[in-house]
Amino acid sequence: MRTVRDTTRLRPRAPPVPQPCPPCDSLTLVETQHQLYIDCTTCEAMFTREELALAARIAAAALEAGAA
To answer: CB-based burial of residue 14 (10 Å sphere; 0-12 exposed, 13-18 middle, 19+ buried)?
Structure first.
C-alpha cells in the first residue's frame, strides 16, 4: 500500500524544512505539498517562503553583527 501511495501521490507529502522556526527556534517546520504556508508543528505558527527567507537573512545578519 505504501508503494501505491508513493506512486500515485494520493497523500500530500510534508517534508521537513531545514530551518529553525523564528518564534520558537525548534526544527519542526514542515512544508505540505499544495499549501501556501509552511507550518511549525511545535508552536503552530505559519509562514510563507518569503517570510522564512527574511527571517533567515535577519538571523544571519545578527550573527554577523555579533561576530564583528
So the answer is: middle
